[in-house]
Amino acid sequence: MTPRYLVLALACLAAFAAPVPAAAQEQRTPVSQCQAIAQNLPRATFASFSGAPTLMPAVSEGEDVKLTFLGHSTFEIDTPAGIVIATDYNGWYRPATTPDVVTMNKAHPTHFTLTPDPGIKHVLHGWSDVPGEKANVNLVVGDAHIRNVTTDIRFSYGLGGSQENGNSIFIFEIAGLCIGHLGHLHYELTDSHYTEIGRLDVVMVPVDGGLTMGADSMSRVIKRLRSSLILPMHRRGPPVEAFLAMFGKDFDVAYAPDDSITVSMRTLPKKPLIYVLKGVR
């Protein structure tokens, strides 16, 4: 081999052997612990409050996540790293501090606002404003990986018809937990939906009995998800007992003394528990 070709070969070998720049490493797609089929994961956008993008840190099974019912379909989720998330944020039910992330759905004005607090860094819509497209959320903020699975909704106020992918089930992967918020779910989920969702350890479920789905339909969704902790929300009209009556001895039921619960992988109930927070009943 001539010196010229030898230099070229060595240069190529060096290029292949060189370490991948840190910035490139940080843009790798995070691995979802919740999805049944990891290959379905889209690319994620990374966010960091310290400047440069970072990968999700390793989590400990002993880390606690606090969930607080604020009203209607809005929960505050507080992560171990101090990230504050508000679900189905409408601007009326607010965490005590400005949330870092809010999610929204648009079935009714009580589930979104077009004028959120400008201090909120990440406003995530569960719908796309581009006709025929799905909302695509896959975002890492601090120690929270947030993604969505879209579902169809009926048009509001008696207009008839439906809108494809108008609602999103938001999934929050925090401290090893898979936490799902079903949003304004109007139709029972398909096998494809369950595959996209994967495992949900904690699920927030609407129990109004009609504005979303009837208690029997919603209970079938919950039984299929088989989450360890079920948190009712969005109770309008019938008492929460109408929803609870759909479950038998395979599920425990408890009424909370207050509006919040702290949970970790270590403290998840061994048997599925429907836990009715104060303010829901």
UniProtKB/TrEMBL annotation:
| InterPro entries per the UniProt record, alphabetical | RibonucZ/Hydroxyglut_hydro
Q: Which Pfam families does its entry note?
A: Lactamase_B_3 (PF13483)
User: What is the annotated signal peptide range for this record?
Assistant: 1-24
Top-level taxon in the UniProt lineage: Bacteria
Gene Ontology MF: a single term? hydrolase activity
Record's keyword terms, sorted: Hydrolase, Signal
Q: What is this protein called?
A: L-ascorbate metabolism protein UlaG (Beta-lactamase superfamily)
Q: What is the lineage of its organism?
A: Bacteria, Pseudomonadati, Pseudomonadota, Alphaproteobacteria, Hyphomicrobiales
